[in-house]
Amino acid sequence: MTSTTRRTGLLIMVAALGGAVLISRWVFSSRGVPTSGASAVTIRIAEHRQPRIDALNKSIPRIEKQLGVTIKVIEYPAPEKDYMSKLLTELAAGNAPDLFTANFDSDVPDMVAAGYLAPITAEVKAWDGYDQLFDVAKKLSTSADGQIYALDSMLAVTQLYFRRDLLEKAGISTAQPTSWKDLLDRAREIKAKTGKYSLLLPAGIDWGAATFNEGFALFVPGSKTPQLANDDGTLNLNGEGVKDIFGLYKSLIDEGLMPIEPLLGPQPWVIPKYTMFPAGDLMATTCGTWCYIYDWGKDSKNPIPDVTKKVGTWAVPGMHGGLSVTVSGENIWAVNAKSTHLALAKKVLLALSSVRATVAYAQLLGNIPARKDAADDKDFQALTELVPVLKGVDHGTFLKSAPGFSVVAEGVARATEALLRKQTDAAGAQAILVKYVRDLLGNKVVK
Amino acid sequence: MIGLHKFTRAQAIAYGFLTVTVVFCLLPFLWVVLASVDPNASLFLSIPKGITADHFIKIFTAQKGARWFLNSLVTVGAATALVVIVGGMGGYALSRTNAWWKRPFLYAIILVRVVPPTALIVPLYKVMLFANGVMGALVRSIVPPDHVRSTMHIFGFVDGYFGLILVLSAMQLPLALWIIKTFFDLTPKEYEEAALMDGANVFQRIHRILVPLALPGLGAAGLLAFIGAWGDFLMPLTFISSPDLQLLPIGLFRAFQRANILDYGYLSALALLYMLPAVVAFGLARRFLVQTFTGGIKG
Amino acid sequence: MSRPYESRVAWQNRMLLVPALVLLACFILIPAGAAVYISFTNDALTGFAAAHPQFVGLKNYARLFSDDGFWNSLVVTFFFVFGSSIVGQFVLGLASAVALRQPISFRPVFNAAILLPNAVPEVVASFIWISMLAGGKYSTLSRIVGLFGIPSQNWLESVPLLMIIVVNTWRGIAFAMILMTSGLSAVPAEVYEAARMDGATPRQIFWRITLPLLQPTIFLYMLVSTAGTIAIFGLIYTLTRGGPGGATEIIGIYIYNQSFTAYQLGYGSAVAVIMLGVSVALGAIYVRVLKVQV
């Protein structure tokens, strides 16, 4: 290489570097990134869906002042499935923000096994809010190894919600169903007397992990297989209980008691929950505490006026009796194991689990803070739909999550998809679930 | 005008067929054009009751649309430049050389062109993960912890400008190499040889003689690389997550996914803006289209 | 000049190719090889396998062959390629090319209009077709077919595969037209003259002379278009995400869904390896049969 070549090459490199510096200054000029190099640390939080982002933004100025940090909210894709895909790809790349939520308790064990989450056991136990946590929240947040990797700062109570007003008008009993047979008979009666869809359970692949968490899982406690995860890491998927639940699905699908077509497309809950239920074309569905506010509240797509009077709740009956009210985690905050500011991130996590922060989410989304002292908060007391739920939350049951639950959730989604498309029966659906989990996790895992 | 007595049956059929085809081709665009100036735009085709430029203005005042556009411009522009430079050098070498590796290399380029990016995306993701880890370690050792993230936004392989530019370039490179090689094949060697006789070195040869001669080829390759990278959806979908780095196609897609807060007028204006550079580049590159599509069969 | 001229030039040529080689190797060749390796592991985005992927041999391939979703995506891809590329785009493109060779005016306008669908980015194309197809009775298509008495429906849910074939046909007419035009212009005018003097009708000329002479071009078109259509992702993903219950899950979308939505990177790689194999086979045919000049 001659000297001219070398000189020109050098010039090009300098120009490129200079360009990169200029661009980076421009790119970040409108960001709140501290350029002074002083000790203002930035903690990045991932959040998705506008109401959640709004709720988070309410608490940020207060937390920033309290802890002396700068907080930046990174908006992730909105639909739950896309959010989790993006989060996982970023976690694997080591790029993920310092703080984020898991969608469901079932997501957490697998993220722990992948090494994505930092343990927060010591910090949570030393926290002054720890004693205020409901026992259920403590149990849900604790992993099989006794450590805490993600904090269930809020809870949702999932049960059956029904149109009390329309059932009464049609002369159908609104008493609590006492068994699966009773529930099915009630659904059949609704269809016969009103001609509308009677009971919706989330199903199918497009509904994602909620098919399991907000549908299938609710019937597990009352089935012949009350827990799916064993302490030795195996999963009880081959038993009668699982088959019976698929049988319940099959009856609802084959007898036309639940809508099928919307469940085969993207965002399958939109039509049944935001259009059919308020319009009275669907009489009952599984739903959670968020439904009073997020799905049918005054800011929702098709609000139901006087929603607490018109929409009643039933606990989920057991197969032959007994009732269960399933409690699951919400706002399950976790810290990125690769965060460069672990201690500070953990402090922010605890700040986000304070009464005021969780009540902000409760106002916009309708879940309940996982703390007893939330009952004393004035803003929470104004949420009259939620106050009674908070009182009773410690009486709920919950499904123990374990590593592999992401795969189980996907397997259940696929099995119910086959049922939706009328390709198989209950035993066949179970076979699909078992095969899928075995293929991915190994034969020994499924009992 | 066509005199009616000259209207043969063949012409009538041709006009008829073409008219139907053109309507089929243009009809879908009608909605997006109307919606972009419709103050009450909805997803459905309707005649606007008034005309407004608000949607276009909002693109530049409301943060996001302008940001996406700028990101696309920077990354795709840089990728195009990289493709033209690297492809220019490579295409020249491929054309002029007679070494043993010439044929295998060219066959390899054809095979690579046939490979769908969707088949590569998973292993590519793992490769980028690895590279990102290395880059991350490097950056962390140089830059104070507070600025690590911002630096990785630029130099990272996953969720960073650098990685995305490289990936976009690599995807467009095979075609560019082929086009430029073909062009140099048609360029007589006499000019270079004359310059060599005069004592010019490689760099001067490139700068003073080859580049002006090959400008049409470089231009064609550049335009087609631009069009390809501008429309690329899979790469930014997989590798970008920060809203600050988001490119136009993904921004448009995600905005559209928010089922309840959709401003169709704004999105339509944005779509038109997104469409514009691609259409312009396509128009300029039309002459070279046959070349692209035959991939070298014309020699 | 310390080395002989030829070897210096040879060395320079090699150096000029190095950056291209590096880019291609890093982002295409190495991933292609890595796909094979990853397909033999149980790598995933979450769970224990994410941190410690293990070698599982041919298990992913075994799962492939018994997975309905995989076969479904092959069938969908087949119909998609056949319907839009081999039939739709070809017929309309050839017809357009023939039509544009007639002595008519406004040729550039027709040309530009047919080119436009191909010029716009995929996301814009799917965006405008959503307006055409979604929304039941409000969609543009419903309103149009309403004039013919066909009931309006949710097109993307009732006939999703047909719809994506239509959309891709719409998008690719230009490509076929351009190739056919260049093929047609390579037919010498004397051939037509001679045929006309022998009294052949336009129909006979087309079927017995034009088409056979176009064969190499047609073959080339089929090959390139098939390869290109198999690679489609963004257009259909943004339109249907793989469609109601996998009805439009072409192979590219199937790979993406398995890898990033179901988190199974190992399995996704196995499907990708199969796709790579098919593409390489297509490329090999391309190179051999068409005797590409290098």
**What's the story with the biggest beta sheet of chain A?**
7 strands, mixed
Q: Estimate the mean pLDDT confidence of chain A.
A: 87
Strand/helix succession of chain C: HHHHHHHHHHHHHH
Oligomer: heterotrimer
Overall number of structural domains of chain C: 1
Number of domains of chain A: 2
CATH architectural group of chain C: Orthogonal Bundle
Low-pLDDT segments, ≥5 res of chain A: 1-5, 27-38
Distance between the termini of chain A: 69 Å
Percent strand of chain C equals under 5%
The CATH class of chain C, by name, is: Mainly Alpha
% residues in beta strands of chain A: 5-15%
User: What would CATH call the class of the largest domain in chain A?
Assistant: Alpha Beta
Low-confidence stretches of chain C: none
The count of β-strands of chain A is 11
* Annotated CATH architecture of the largest domain in chain A: 3-Layer(aba) Sandwich
Give me the number of helical elements of chain A. 19
Structure commentary:
The complex is a heterotrimer of chains A (447), B (299) and C (294). With 447 residues, chain A is an alpha+beta fold. Chain A has two domains: 178 residues, Periplasmic binding protein-like II (D-Maltodextrin-Binding Protein, domain 2); 216 residues, Periplasmic binding protein-like II (D-Maltodextrin-Binding Protein, domain 2). Chain A is built from 19 helices and eleven strands. In chain A, the strands form three sheets. In chain A, strands 3, 4, 5, 6, 7, 10 and 11 form a seven-stranded mixed sheet that branches. Chain A has a two-stranded parallel sheet with strand order 1-2. Chain A has a two-stranded antiparallel sheet with strand order 8-9. Chain A starts with a helix and ends in a 6-residue tail after the last helix. Chain B has 299 residues and is mostly helical. Chain B has two domains: 52 residues, no CATH class; 236 residues, Orthogonal Bundle (MetI-like fold). Chain C starts with a helix and ends with a helix. The mean pLDDT of chain C is 88.
